[in-house]
Specification:
This protein is α+β, with helices and mostly antiparallel strands. It has three domains: 3-243, Distorted Sandwich (Beta-galactosidase, Chain A, domain 5), CATH 2.70.98; 247-650, Glycosyltransferase; 662-714. It has 16 helices and 31 strands. The strands form eight sheets. An eight-stranded antiparallel beta sheet has the order 5-6-7-8-15-12-11-10, covered by helices on one side. Strands 1-2-3-4-9-14-13 form a seven-stranded antiparallel beta sheet, with no helix packed on it. The protein has a four-stranded antiparallel beta sheet with strand order 16-28-29-30, with no helix packed on it. A hairpin with a 3-residue loop joins strand 13 (194-195) and strand 14 (199-206). It is globular.
């Protein structure tokens, strides 16, 4: 992310919670909550957010005036519940009685549903005497915009109304500078002994062996009175909704290896958590907490990662993005007719134009990726009805590629931000310092990124294939454009002395000779010649790039290499997955298995949940990977990485129109001797595939085949 909008750490992120990676996240549609391991919201990066506005900025529970001792906490495997178990510290004497430490079991159980936070606090007295329990909650609602929370300065704000209460409820209000009235309500199932504007205090008499339950709700607008019935009914709805999302498409199961299956389950649950069912279909939001919104690039790549298992994501992404395609030129929005959205936001700062992200188009790659995904989706599903529906959008996207994306008229797609408020770099590596010359100088624009030319190549090939399917007479024209793009890239980006591709061309056509992982994305599109692809693969697999936990974004020894940076030496799981899938296109399946093993090892150290990125330090025996402090966790294309890498390792290619599933020279990662794919649907047909290690070979056996479908094995 560009420095102007980069995520800033705050004092509240440190201390007992050491960095953002420790925050516990829940999400439902456009509402999400991040809390520390105690379940407390303390006003740093944490809070209860709805449509890019933070409602609750503080919700801190104390027992006897102090924070309880934490026993354990975490999010359930299906991502529905946050659960924290604590016990009391010594309670102060009350009425001549006091309780020693460790006699109360205190459980906080929380979930989100229908724009509301539901919480149950259950306290059980395991002591030998009755206890007077002083329980308190400090709370506040600041209605801060998500960009404010991330650290973007804001000189003026709207007006916060004084909180009001009625004995069980506290109401908060804020009138924004955009004229919108935003409200929130916090309600308790029991009337507090004292209820003020920012604190609720309870005193429970808890006999030995008994328990007390307190229910809490918070959301926009008014609150109903919380109780056990509301908690249970809404929890059931939240769990059923998550189950439906998790069960879309085919499933993957490994051998009796709980850790590997836990990784598959957690990754699938994270994709489901981040997927919101919009009127246009399911859409995977980018990540919690900073990017819990539709992003064009992230949505497309996540949908592509999941395409072989669950095409419904790609359908939802294509439909949503088609409806938000730009129709006018705007420097502030970085838009032009035919361009596909980069990001959309719903907060006050976006509405006022303080940031350009209300509907922002500053991604140079998203339009090409949109077209390329449409081609991949059509091959996977033979759903030509959708392709016909969005055909005008695809044509408009290709018009943007030739009329606006080709800044210099040289046949390459390039970018230069339209306004100073926009992102200075507009590829997936969009931080301010991510694109540079070999000596560290930043290039003058317009900049033509290497991987974007690969996406354009894939887009032109997709259009040629779609034209053939639809009987459009422009098939030859688009096929020729693909080959012209290939020739330009091979001629202008290749560095023979390096055996690698330049990361970009500057505005004067000079190579930015930095050595970056962008070349792995070029392999993914199939643009390079076989010889050059193998040379790139060899270098990507060398110690320059491989940290032992995956592929670094920048090679060791480059001018701006920093393993702790966002894009200049860190490891991004999706980036490694794209490179691995690219290597597989050229037959390098054992390289895929190698990288898959490394990413699996990293996941094992992150509780089987891959973060957005982590530091690119060298892997040392007995030491874990080093976390990046403000990475999104969970993050959609990080979660989807395992599925793309497994497809690449297994050599699975699906041609729905021909009714063929092709398996080309499959390999399994070390220690995993079998893998089952269940419920793989191709058109009206369904098949199960069992991959089994037999000596030095991996074989595949189709099972439970229904409908007309051919499973063809190669290699």
């Amino acid at each position: 992310m560009d420095d102007a909008y980069s995520v800033q750490t705050t004092a509240a992120d440190s201390g007992e919670v050491d960095g953002l990676e420790q925050l516990m996240a829940l999400k439902d549609a456009d509402t999400f909550c991040v809390a520390d391991p105690w379940g407390d919201l303390k006003g740093g990066a944490d809070g209860l957010f709805d449509h890019d506005t933070r409602l609750l900025s503080r919700l801190v529970m104390t027992v006897g005036g102090v924070r309880p001792s934490r026993l354990s906490s975490g999010v359930s495997q299906d991502n529905v519940f946050f659960i924290c178990h604590t016990t009391n510290r010594p309670l102060p004497p009350m009425g001549g009685r006091s309780a020693p430490a460790g006699v109360l079991h205190i459980e906080r159980r929380r979930f989100l549903w229908d724009r509301r936070l539901f919480e149950r606090v259950r306290v059980v007295n395991h002591g030998v005497e009755d206890v007077l329990l002083p329980l308190a909650f400090e709370f506040a609602a600041d209605f801060a915009d998500i960009f404010q929370v991330r650290g973007t300065p804001r000189p003026r704000r709207g007006t916060l109304a004084p909180p009001t209460s009625d004995g069980r409820r506290v109401r908060f209000g804020y009138t924004g500078l955009d004229g919108v009235q935003r409200d929130a309500c916090l309600a308790f199932s029991e009337p507090p002994a004292r209820l003020g504007a920012h604190k609720a205090e309870f005193m429970f008499s808890l006999p030995q062996g008994r328990r007390v339950d307190l229910y809490i709700e918070c959301g926009p607008d008014s609150c109903d009175q919380p109780d056990e019935t509301r908690f249970r009914l809404n929890a059931l709805q939240a769990r059923l909704s998550m189950r439906r999302r998790r069960r879309r498409g085919a499933t993957l199961r490994g051998p009796r290896s709980p850790r590997f299956n836990d990784w598959l389950d957690q990754s699938r649950a994270d994709v489901a958590l981040l997927t919101t069912d919009l009127p246009t279909g399911p859409y995977p939001y980018a990540g919690v907490p900073w990017f819990s919104t539709p992003f064009g690039r992230d949505g497309i790549i996540t949908a592509w990662q999941m395409l072989w298992l669950d095409p419904s994501l790609a359908r939802g992404v294509l439909t949503y993005l088609a409806r938000r395609q730009a129709t006018a030129v705007s420097a502030f929005q970085d838009s032009a007719p035919g361009k596909i959205m980069h990001e959309t936001r719903g907060g006050e700062m976006s509405a006022l134009g303080e940031v350009p992200f209300g509907l922002y188009y500053g991604g140079v790659d998203t339009t090409c990726l949109f077209v390329a995904l449409a081609g991949a989706y059509a091959r996977r599903t033979a759903d030509l009805a959708l392709i016909r529906d969005i055909w005008p959008n695809l044509i408009a996207a290709t018009d943007w590629m030739t009329e606006h994306g080709d800044f210099n008229g040289d046949g390459l797609i390039s970018y230069q931000r339209g306004a100073e408020t926009g992102l200075s770099n507009q590829g997936w590596k969009d931080s301010e310092d991510s694109i540079f010359h070999a000596d560290g100088r930043f290039p003058k624009g317009p900049v033509a990124l290497l991987e974007v030319q690969g996406y354009a190549f894939a887009a032109w090939r997709a259009m040629a294939d779609l034209a053939r399917m639809l009987g459009d007479d422009r098939q030859a024209e688009w096929a020729a454009r693909a080959e012209a793009t290939r020739s330009l890239v091979e001629a202008r980006f290749w560095m023979e002395d390096e055996g690698f591709y330049a990361i970009a061309l500057d505005g004067e056509g000079a190579q930015c000779r930095a050595i970056g992982s962008n070349a792995g994305h070029l392999l993914f599109t199939g643009l390079p010649s076989k010889d050059r692809a193998l040379r790139v693969t060899k270098r990507l697999l060398s110690a320059e790039f491989r940290s032992g936990w995956g592929v670094r974004t920048l090679a060791l020894g480059q001018a701006r290499f920093n393993p702790m940076s966002y894009h200049d030496g860190s490891v991004w799981p999706h980036d490694t997955a794209m490179a691995a899938a690219g290597m597989a296109r050229y037959g390098e399946r054992r390289a895929v298995a190698l990288l898959l093993n490394e990413i699996y090892a990293a996941a094992s150290h992150f509780q089987m949940r891959l973060p957005e990125l982590f530091c690119g330090f060298e892997r040392l025996t007995g030491e874990p990977p080093i976390a990046y402090p403000v990475a999104c966790l969970p993050q959609a294309w990080a979660a989807g990485s395992v599925f793309l890498m497994l497809q690449a390792a297994l050599g699975v290619d699906i041609d729905a129109a021909a009714g063929v599933v092709e398996i080309d020279d499959p390999v399994l990662l070390a220690g995993i001797d079998r893998l089952n794919v269940t419920g793989l649907q191709v058109g009206d047909a369904v098949v199960d595939l069992a991959f089994q290690q037999m000596g030095r070979r991996t074989v595949v056996l189709p099972h439970r085949r229904k409908g007309q479908l051919t499973v063809r094995t190669l290699g």
